[in-house]
């Protein structure tokens, strides 16, 4: 066992940046108190990226870090890291974080035995979360209602759950916890290929799915670029729900998105894994169904 502990930083309280500091090293364990002496720490971009032997990260590593803002690709491509999301939240006392883009991208062993509900609730200043869990194939859980409800400053969510083939059930509301909530996302414009390649994701897209996110303009495949595939290269047609087992949708699920421009590839290949044929609508308070609409 090769362990990284706080002893290394016992006399260095003024460190602000640790970007790429341990990238591609062979540590197996990072103690949860590793950053406790770094009271001015601001940047841990790719700090532990591509650590192919890393299996364990202590539960408190990213708690109570009030100066921390940048967590881009912090644990990206740590293919043996499995245990870190053992509880639903991880960022208590660290609400200045603005960027978690690619944070766990390519962590193919990462699990969430207790789900991910509430994981981002403390990150009230979060702006960029694209590709946070991209290609985390072992992340077996449902998508909770209002997962992004507290993150009203978000601007990008591209590929957030892309290739998470363990995801099981779509939520009714992605941006609001309760139907009567009124929170909005005034700067969120992109959520391309967000669930693309979630091959076990089931359910029906409700008419409340996008409530609160009325500024979204782009949900489709990229017009000039496409996201990473499982081999780390670019290519393919990867729309918002492409290659999933989504079985249907309410005919008004896009109604809140009056500024929407791109839905390219939205349900591409979904009918290969399941029968995307059911379109639902309301007559009064009664749910009605149209079949074979796609």
The residue fraction in helices comes out at: under 10%
Oligomer: single chain
Beta strand count: 7
Q: State the end-to-end CA separation.
A: 54 Å
Q: How would a crystallographer describe the biggest sheet? A: 4 strands, mixed
Rg, alpha carbons: 20 Å
Mean pLDDT: 89
Relevant terms:
1 helix; 3-stranded parallel beta sheet; single chain; little secondary structure
Account of the protein in words:
- The protein is mostly loops and 294 residues long.
- Helices cover 1% and strands 9% of the residues.
- It contains one helix and seven strands.
- The strands form two sheets. A four-stranded mixed β-sheet has the order 4-5-6-7. It has a three-stranded parallel β-sheet with strand order 1-2-3, with no helix packed on it.
- Strand 5 (245-250), helix 1 and strand 6 (278-283) form a beta-alpha-beta unit.
- It is elongated.
In short:
This protein has one helix spanning 270-273; strands at 3-4, 29-30, 56-57, 202-205, 245-250, 278-283, 286-290.
Layout of SSEs?
Layout: E1 3-4, E2 29-30, E3 56-57, E4 202-205, E5 245-250, H1 270-273, E6 278-283, E7 286-290
Parallel strand pairs: 1-2, 2-3, 4-5, 5-6
Antiparallel strand pairs: 6-7
């Amino acid at each position: 066992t090769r362990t990284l502990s706080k002893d290394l930083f016992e006399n260095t309280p003024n460190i602000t940046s640790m970007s790429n500091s341990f990238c591609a090293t062979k540590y197996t364990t990072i103690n949860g108190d590793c950053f406790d002496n770094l009271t001015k720490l601001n940047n841990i971009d790719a700090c532990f990226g591509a650590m192919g032997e890393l299996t364990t990260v202590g539960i408190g590593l990213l708690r109570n870090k009030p100066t921390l803002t940048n967590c881009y690709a912090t644990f990206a491509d740590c293919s043996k890291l499995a245990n870190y999301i053992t509880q639903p939240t991880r960022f208590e006392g660290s609400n200045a974080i603005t960027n978690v883009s690619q944070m766990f991208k390519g962590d193919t062993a990462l699990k969430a035995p207790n789900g991910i509900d509430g994981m981002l609730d403390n990150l009230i200043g979060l702006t960029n979360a694209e590709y946070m869990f991209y290609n985390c194939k072992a992340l077996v859980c449902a998508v909770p209602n209002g997962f992004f409800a507290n993150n009203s400053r978000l601007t990008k969510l591209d590929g957030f759950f892309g290739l998470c083939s363990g995801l099981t059930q779509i939520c009714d509301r992605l941006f609001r916890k309760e139907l009567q909530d009124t929170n909005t996302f005034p700067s969120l414009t992109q959520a391309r290929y967000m669930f693309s390649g979630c091959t076990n994701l089931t359910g029906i897209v409700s008419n409340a799915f996008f409530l609160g996110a009325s500024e979204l303009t782009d949900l489709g495949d990229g017009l000039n670029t496409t996201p990473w595939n499982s081999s780390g290269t670019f290519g393919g047609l990867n729309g918002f729900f492409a290659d999933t087992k989504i079985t249907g949708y309410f005919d008004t699920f896009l109604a809140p998105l009056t500024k929407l421009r791109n839905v390219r590839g939205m349900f591409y290949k979904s009918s290969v894994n399941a029968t995307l044929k059911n379109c639902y609508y309301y007559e009064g308070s009664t749910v009605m169904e149209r079949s074979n609409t796609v």
